[in-house]
Automatic annotation (TrEMBL):
It catalyses: a uridine in RNA = a pseudouridine in RNA. Belongs to the pseudouridine synthase RluA family. This is Pseudouridine synthase. InterPro entries: PsdUridine_synth_cat_dom_sf, PsdUridine_synth_RluA-like_CS, PsdUridine_synth_RluC/D, PsdUridine_synth_RsuA/RluA, RluA_PseudoU_synthase.
């Protein structure tokens, strides 16, 4: 719901999670989707480890995205409240108290690729998730999520994600349209009745025989990355390991001597499972900066920013400012925004540290199947994988198409060129051939 307050002679409408995203909330510039800054009430409750701290110390230590003097000003002005009341900067919080932080919210930008609907059924929706877009609200992301975009652009709500895809992973995403249908899917996934298939491009020549990795995974939420845990070489018990049991099957599809295309079939579903298991094999995803660092040194992070936590842009683009107009597209609202005097991100659209120039991870979800159901990407929705499998160079000689896809020879693909129409046809045919040959799926061509 919206609440109104008077702040420095202007009326502010505070949004809460109950306010749905709307189409006019977005701004598109240079291939990037921004969210127009908006006023928002963040609500949290004091954790046991926070109790006994002053309100300013709590925010300064736990939420380091803003300087301490901002939090002092926010407390004094009432933008940070405890149990709905203004408090002094020396106020000591107690466990379970409600803390409200009223702020001018700038969401991180994402790539502006569409969230394309693949299949719409009464109780299930499948989409092609673009890389860089989180599945559901988390952290600083709320409207710039798959769930938020689908609600804003198609009026689809509520939606319940059936499985997870990392923010930088693209491909098939299944969403239930009711909590009961989502629970059924989750029960099947947890019981091991669901088969999952992804395709990745990895470093090096992957072994030509199927590799099965059984290695515990321990996820460190503070660092945002997983590590593999295994027993010792003497075959001692793994009972003392802290990580969760995890298993992934890998099958090489193609290699050019430098990179390999690998079919990935996770049996379990741990955070970053495919990524960290591929690293464990010695063949990490070729642009995965979070798990590639141990294998490649002296490289530039620019253009390979597969994870913000592990890469910093060498030359970030000029920030887009609210002062210069909010958008350059005809469909955007012409509404101007006042600069919030307390906001640490104004006058820019994006929050500090987010340039929006990330590259999608070379990992693509292509198929999920279970008892009596199967969902897969259809031709024309596989552009991301084909681009990294073929290379960015266009295709020149359509006559070489058969040799290219039948052998999946990366060198041959990169040496071809083709006009846009034939390239799109090639993408569709390559995708259909891959699914039919390597995944035993008969695709329905949508023309």
């Amino acid at each position: 719901m919206n609440t109104k307050r008077k702040r420095e002679d202007m009326e502010i409408v505070w949004q809460t999670p109950a306010n749905p995203p709307e189409r006019h909330d977005y701004v598109f510039r240079n291939g990037i989707r921004y969210v127009k800054p908006y006023y928002f009430e963040f609500i949290s409750h004091v954790k046991n480890r926070w109790a006994g701290k002053t309100i300013v110390d709590l925010f300064s230590e736990e939420f380091k995205g803003r300087p301490r003097d901002y939090y002092e000003s926010a407390v004094k002005s009432g933008r940070i409240q405890v149990d709905g009341q203004k408090v002094p900067v020396s106020y000591v919080v107690q466990s379970s108290q409600k803390i409200s932080h009223f702020l001018h919210r700038h969401e991180p930008p994402v790539m502006s690729w569409d969230v394309e609907i693949l299949c719409e059924e009464p109780d299930v929706l499948t989409v092609c998730k673009p890389a860089s877009v989180p599945v559901h609200p988390c952290g600083q992301y709320r409207k710039n999520t798959v769930v938020g975009i689908l609600q804003a652009e198609y009026g689809l709500a509520p939606l319940f994600p059936v499985h997870r895809l990392d923010r930088l992973v693209s491909g098939l995403l299944i969403l239930a349209r009711s909590a009961s249908r989502a629970d059924l899917f989750r029960q099947q996934i947890e019981s091991g009745a669901v088969q999952k298939r992804y395709i990745a491009r990895v470093i090096g020549v992957f072994p030509d025989t199927q590799q099965v990795v059984n290695a515990n995974i321990n996820y460190n939420a503070r660092e945002g990355r997983s590590t593999v845990e295994v027993g010792d070489d003497q075959g001692n018990s793994t009972a003392s390991l802290k990580g969760k049991a995890a298993c992934t099957k890998f099958t090489r599809i193609s290699t050019n001597g430098k990179h390999s295309i690998v079919l990935c079939e996770p049996v379990t579903g741990r955070t970053h499972q495919i990524r960290v298991h591929l690293q464990y094999t010695g063949h990490p995803i070729a642009n995965d900066m979070l798990y590639l660092s141990e294998f490649v040194s002296g490289r530039s992070a620019e253009g390979l920013s597969a994870d913000r936590a592990a890469a910093k842009s060498c030359s970030p683009p000029e920030p887009i400012s609210l002062k210069n107009g909010i958008s350059d597209t005809a469909n955007d609202s012409n509404e101007d925004f006042s600069i919030d005097p307390m906001c640490t991100n104004c006058p820019n659209l994006a929050p500090k540290g987010y340039e929006g120039n990330e590259e999608g991870l070379w990992l693509h979800c292509v198929k999920y199947s279970g008892p009596g159901w199967l969902y897969a990407l259809c031709p024309g929705k596989f552009l991301e994988f084909c681009k990294f499998a073929i290379g960015e160079a266009p295709i020149r000689c359509f006559g070489h198409f058969y040799d290219a896809w039948s052998t999946l020879n990366l060198d041959l693909w990169e040496g071809l060129a083709l006009d846009t129409f034939r390239a799109q046809l090639l993408y569709e045919q390559v995708f259909a051939a891959i699914l039919e040959q390597f995944m035993d799926v008969v695709c329905v061509w949508q023309r």
